[in-house]
């Protein structure tokens, strides 16, 4: 192919004794006329190539149906009202609704009603304890710069907002709905240049008053990248604040007794956990106990209780276990429920080999603690959350999805503790192929078993077929079974879709996460390569029929794989990727990830980064596979410069005729997007993979 001309700079820097070349530094600058011209030329080249892909119309049509399947969120209960999201077939975005005690349902926030162009997204929401007010956050154009509003639930009228600089802000209400705690960044003129995305603080806000008059609660002197969490007890007595530097797998936790603070004064926060290499989620529940879900001395997590009023019970050795750490399962979520006799019980979610299980445990007052029952009826799927009314009751709601089931909600009742029933089912639009899901294990070079889910159409021939291998491997993210229109569309067309549970995720607890971060990051790439080799060895596919796929941190995974093992796959899709690991901290939210990857400012850690940085691993004269980079111009997490720089480097270096192209989108960011934008992107990605893995079978649309 004739690629757009890209000037190569003779730029080599000495960084801690390393000679580091950066020939495409100029592509970091969005405003540089050379960047604009190069990007527009890439648009023309990629557009022509994508439009000519033979299976693009078929994938578009199938995705139009499957992507538009519905989705239902887990309800949040407040004083008899249930708040939840729902997207029906044909809707671009989910709407936020309230279900009244009499069963009547009303829409409270509809992003499309606010913005018919579809570029506004609902980022977060939180109802007050009394259910009469709702805090919600919106962003536009993919920038994820959340603006906070408050509405009156009964009238639907906005009573406060917008309050800006609320990205990633939790909200914790006080009883009565007049005040809340939230997180907001300092104004840009109060922080150093280049740090406008950082410097968060916890504030106390009275609804209807200017945000600039809010009372500062916590945050001065913290690391600029700190993210804060806030939680209040239902009676308004207790405030819990947590903080973690960036995405580090550790947090500090403080507790304040608001009843002991004088009106109008700043509540004194006492240390529960500070400077400890562990994660602890803490809250005071309706029983007055301090509940603690933690990986402290328990890498697969445990649930315990303490006394919020007695600091002597806050030490881990004094905690009373309710759900102890299990040797073969990872605790991920809990809900408090009442047994038929009125005693307190816990509904717990555990993951075993990336499949979620549900069980019932005795509460802290039980004479015989431990597991009471396993809940039946769940397949190889994922539980997105468990919810119960904060005032108590014998019912809980369970969010569930699997590879063939869109996100739906099940109902659990203490009267039948081993059973679940459907509560609200998401609509399915389009024909979902009958799936065969096989679980298997690859072996990484160091002997570590790597779990895979392998999806194919029931009754498909038992011969090597075009296969897509997906992975992520980072940030403690567990890749569990979930409805995927892309996977279903690929399988319906006759292909195989595989998902690898790599180190760096949370599938086996915090030790599994740490085995794939920092100096051990290469383990993730080794696991992925082992998964690819396993699929070929077991006859699912061949290397000539294999495509690899990943986004964000998974884009780094794909970038590292194609530069380390270019012969491993015939095609790759690298979406919203992180690829220049020497300079990643200088852009977007990169600085918040240096605990996951390491920092180039440290000589030793720079060595780790250079050991796998895809941009710096490109070698001229190498036959690279077909690669489609997809980037988003409004991405404020991972700057599109990463895709630009590696695309230019590979286009210059490759000796193969396989195309290496860059697809970019405007007015969309790293996260949520309208359904129609999802269809267009996914169709291009699948059609590209099909073209270069040999998937040509046309299956009649049903």
TrEMBL record:
Domain of life: Bacteria
Residue ranges constituting the Peptidase S9 prolyl oligopeptidase catalytic domain according to the UniProt record: 483-694
One of the record's GO molecular function terms: serine-type endopeptidase activity
Keyword Ribosomal protein: no
Xref: InterPro entries: AB_hydrolase_fold, Pept_S9_AS, Pept_S9A_N, Peptidase_S9_cat, Peptidase_S9A, Prolyl_oligopep/macrocyclase
GO CC annotations on file: cytosol
UniProt keyword list: Hydrolase, Protease, Serine protease
One matching Pfam family: Peptidase_S9
EC number, as in UniProt: 3.4.21.26
Catalytic activity: Hydrolysis of Pro-|-Xaa >> Ala-|-Xaa in oligopeptides
Sequence ranges assigned to domain Peptidase S9A N-terminal in this UniProt record: 5-415
GO BP of this protein: proteolysis
The family this protein is said to belong to: Belongs to the peptidase S9A family.
Designated name of the protein: prolyl oligopeptidase
Organism field: Blastococcus colisei
Organism placement in taxonomy: Bacteria, Bacillati, Actinomycetota, Actinomycetes, Geodermatophilales
